[in-house]
């Protein structure tokens, strides 16, 4: 009986310790939630008035809850890095195409000039007319290729936005879901900006304490 009673005492003490730890953890989480919410409320004041009106206390409170463990900060950081790499890559592809087109026109211009120099005077009007048609065909091709490149860029960037919306919705971040509504997109962009600024503040605070 004594052994049983002693064991029960130890078990009770361990249970109390565990309860105390859980209470402390909960208290820390509530403290962090309040601090994040307070910082979000301050950051929101810098946003345009229509966005401020859309970001209610409940929305900001839900956002602060989603940011508690820091996972969403890492997700957003990863998504923004992917977006910047994509933009850089697409910009590089567009520059490359522009460079190829410039080279193509220069080569054609030199070829035309050489042909004119070798041409007999009475054949020159015919040659120039043929060259004009060739130049117009090349310029049409260039415009088409540029249009296709611009369409590709828009589609790829739109896809990145959908990826971001889907990932953040799955992560439980309030305000994020797949949409093409311009007002909702503006709101989501502002939410991303809030998360990014809050992450910077968190990072600066950690550096100050370390």
TrEMBL record:
Query: Which branch of life, at top level?
Result: Eukaryota
Looking up InterPro entries in the UniProt record yields: Gonadal
- What protein family does this chain belong to? Belongs to the gonadal family.
Official protein name in the record: DGCR6 protein
**Which gene codes for it?**
Dgcr6
